[in-house]
């Protein structure tokens, strides 16, 4: 099923509406705001509906939609008759008007995708063998993968907005340079933004993988409900993507979201930081596999075996995954006590493998954890984007940078 379909039918929250401004100085903001509304309404919107939702005058709205149509971003798609008066023309997104490439650099599998303006993945590849490439040739290898996938997707290069790169932290957000991600030693001190930009001739954005995942999830959230949210990304490492008031939280250096050293189990395994039971080490795939008593082979098949064995309540694997779920839930509750979010999203490659067993444990435990100070139930759900969420999110960053309507951006423009 496509992410769009899965996201359909979600609740819409009143009071979360963003309104436009009729001042000429904020024309660009209005354009992104109107585009954002049209994008989130696959069935199309009329100018009258857009006017009602944005507070923009008919004249301003007419100018804005004409500019969007001139840029090829929206199309007129039929008319609807509703009540007296002349039929209304529906405006829809033209999904193939622009494209973006997303790359996820990851200790287990490097992924590359092309998405269209609707965020739909139109091409997907793994970049094999990047781990064996010499540090000096890494960027060239990624650039070759970008060229190959753009060709294969049959997308005009001039319609590609750029390349979003998601990678584990820490990184230097200002320079777009990876610093020393512990699980990617070959990428230490690589100037990804500049070097990949030079090699591809395309704009490049570099983002921490958990923030990219949060952005990807928000891009697919058609109901616009992900205002205050967190995204627990569970892959080779664990991290937390955050959104407050509808915008991703990056922090001072772009490295927000480190949750690995939150203590979730005082009896848990010893962490490199000196504490016992930090979240990161307590749910590390290697640790779970050892706790279940497996000898340990290919981590992916070991994780699948864990899920299979856990179906038998008497098997040690059931206890291991139950405890892992409780540990995750405790970290979510502690973070939620700090942030007070609407929604918790869980995703990442390891989560996708274990969700069959973990999802229920985590949801139940978040609802009943005595440490929780939540006064309303917290929605806990799986990522709608799925296993490629960091790569898709990285591509969406490119779309987001160009087209998402954020009042904060209007402030800067003013
Ligand atoms: Zn620790």
TrEMBL record:
Residue stretches in coiled coil: none
Origin superkingdom: Bacteria
A Pfam family: MarR_2
Residue ranges occupied by any HTH marR-type domain in the UniProt entry: 30-74
InterPro entries cross-referenced by the UniProt entry: ATPase_NBD, HTH_MarR-typ, ROK, WH-like_DNA-bd_sf, WH_DNA-bd_sf
PANTHER family: BIFUNCTIONAL UDP-N-ACETYLGLUCOSAMINE 2-EPIMERASE_N-ACETYLMANNOSAMINE KINASE, ROK (REPRESSOR, ORF, KINASE) FAMILY
Family: Belongs to the ROK (NagC/XylR) family.
Protein name per UniProt: ROK family protein
